[in-house]
Amino acid sequence: MFQGKDVILVTGASSGIGRATALLCNRAGATVIASGRNTAALQTLGDICAAPDRLHAEPYDLCADLNNLPVWIQDLRRRYGKLRGMAFCAGQTWNLPMSQYSPETANQAFAICCHAPLMAARGFCDRRNNTGQGAALVFIAAAAALDPNPAQGVYGAAKAALVAGARCLSKEVAGRGIRVNCISPGLVQTPMMEETVRQLGREFLEQEAPLYPLGFGNAEDVAHLAAFLLSDAARWISGQNVPLTGGR
Ligand SMILES: NC(=O)c1ccc[n+]([C@@H]2O[C@H](COP(=O)([O-])OP(=O)(O)OC[C@H]3O[C@@H](n4cnc5c(N)ncnc54)[C@H](OP(=O)(O)O)[C@@H]3O)[C@@H](O)[C@H]2O)c1
């Protein structure tokens, strides 16, 4: 699917969907820059991936200085070469009713769910930092961007903003052969889903389970679509937000 010269940045690689995407892209032949905050978790990737010589752990807090993200991407390019792809998987969820909506909470959600991915994309799309024709970006948005459940208003609004920004970006960079797509998963069994259950209770899962004819997803289900969208097999797909919801 990829070659060693294909450098792919995966954010959120320390857990869940990002971790599965980093491992899959590495197994599929790419050189993977694996980013997250949890240094120990990133280092374990090197022990279990198919090709440790093509996996580079890069601990980084994406929200520490949002304005610096293009500079961070430029620094990665200097050290690893021009980027062929980015799977932006880092994220956090918020579960609170609209009666508790506040600019402070929304700002936190927008920082990691919208500003960070779009600022990283700004760095990626700088002509000096990507490989041009055939380069691709994939953002993990969420089904909540299209149809938020109760208590998903803040999270859904931030992810919807990401989807809009990504679609606009896809039009702006299409002329240079760069593709931009989103994936909007339903419930995927990762530490984030465990956190949602902790916040909303097990009744939440009991309500949701019958809505998923194919069951809840796992991280690899999302990773396979992300790797496909990054690859040349998806060369004619851009500007899309692909729902991935197990038949929901
Ligand atoms: N799981 C679901 O049901 C589901 C459904 C729809 C969409 N999504 C989306 O899918 C993506 C991946 O979620 P997941 O389920 O894999 O969650 P997860 O297992 O909790 O992983 C989240 C990842 O994001 C990273 N991260 C969070 N804040 C960060 C920051 N400020 N700087 C750098 N890294 C940061 C975490 O890094 P550290 O752990 O190292 O801090 C971790 O690697 C998210 O965007 C999420 O919104 C998930």
Describe this structure in words.
With 248 residues, the protein is of the alpha/beta class. It has a single domain (7-239), classed as NAD(P)-binding Rossmann-like Domain (Rossmann fold, 3-Layer(aba) Sandwich), CATH 3.40.50. 43% of the residues lie in helices and 17% in strands. The strands form two sheets. A seven-stranded parallel β-sheet has the order 3-2-1-4-5-6-9, sandwiched between helices. The protein is globular, with a radius of gyration of 17 Å. The mean pLDDT is 98. The structure holds NADP nicotinamide-adenine-dinucleotide phosphate. NADP nicotinamide-adenine-dinucleotide phosphate binds next to helix 1 and helix 6.
Q: How many distinct helices?
A: 8
Report the β-strand fraction as a percent range.
15-25%
- Fold-level CATH name: Rossmann fold
CATH H level, superfamily name: NAD(P)-binding Rossmann-like Domain
Rg, Å, rounded:
17 Å
Helix content: 40-55%
Strand order of the largest sheet: 3-2-1-4-5-6-9
Small molecules bound in the structure, each named once: NADP nicotinamide-adenine-dinucleotide phosphate
Global shape: globular
Largest sheet: 7 strands, parallel
Low-confidence stretches: none
- Work out the count of structural domains: 1
